[in-house]
Structure formats: C-alpha cells, structure tokens
C-alpha cells in the first residue's frame, strides 16, 4: 500500500492525509469534495485514489449542472472549498 495507507471506512484504501480530508480536518468544503470523489471511485470500482499533477474539468456549465449542481458548487465555496494544486498541501 505505501504512503501510510489504510482501508478507510469508505471501503477504498486511503492515505492518512486522504482520511483526514474525508474526516473534515481540512475543512467542510474539502470533506464534501472528498465524499463525492470517494463515491465516484467506489461506483467505478476503484481500490484507491491516485496522485495527479494536473486536472481539467471540461464542459461545466449551468446547462449540464442545473440547479442541483450550481447549489453544490455554491455550498462547497461557502464551506471554504477552493482549488488546490499539488504543491498546496
């Protein structure tokens, strides 16, 4: 496993930092985002998360998100969520 990984309560293997993020140690915005990421990973049968250096979200607009998606983004921002790079910790 490496990197201090342990099987999280979600069923995926998460590192200690990923567990802390999911638990809310980095704020509610990060925790909510992690819950979404973990649920998607579980739905796709992922065993663990992988480290990436770049990501791009394409095609995000009100037309494909609708009110629920816009509300989620607003809630994440209000909860202190923000975009972080690999060097942001």
Please describe the topology of this protein.
Blueprint: E1 6-7, E2 13-14, H1 16-23, H2 28-43, H3 62-78
Antiparallel strand pairs: 1-2
Helix pairs in contact: 1-2, 2-3
Features:
89 residues, two-stranded antiparallel sheet, mainly alpha, single chain
Q: What distance lies between the first and last C-alpha atoms, to the nearest angstrom?
A: 21 Å
Give the strand order, joined by hyphens, for the main sheet. 1-2
Total number of strands = 2
What are the low-pLDDT stretches, counting only 5+ consecutive residues below 50?
none
Helical region count? 3
Query: What kind of assembly state do the chains in view correspond to?
Result: single chain
**SSE order in H/E notation?**
EEHHH
User: If you compute it from the alpha carbons, what radius of gyration comes out, rounded to the nearest whole angstrom?
Assistant: 14 Å
Form type: globular
Computed structural class:
mainly alpha
Mean pLDDT: 79
- Helical amount: 40-55%
What is the makeup of the main sheet? 2 strands, antiparallel
Strand content: under 5%
């Amino acid at each position: 496993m490496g990197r201090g990984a342990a099987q999280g309560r979600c069923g995926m293997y998460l590192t200690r930092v990923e567990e802390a993020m999911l638990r809310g140690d980095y704020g509610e915005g990060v925790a909510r985002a992690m819950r979404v990421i973990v649920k998607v990973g579980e739905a796709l049968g992922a065993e663990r998360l992988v480290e990436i250096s770049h990501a791009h979200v394409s095609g995000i607009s009100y037309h494909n998100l609708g009110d629920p998606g816009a509300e989620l983004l607003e809630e994440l921002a209000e909860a202190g969520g923000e975009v972080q790079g690999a060097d942001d910790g």
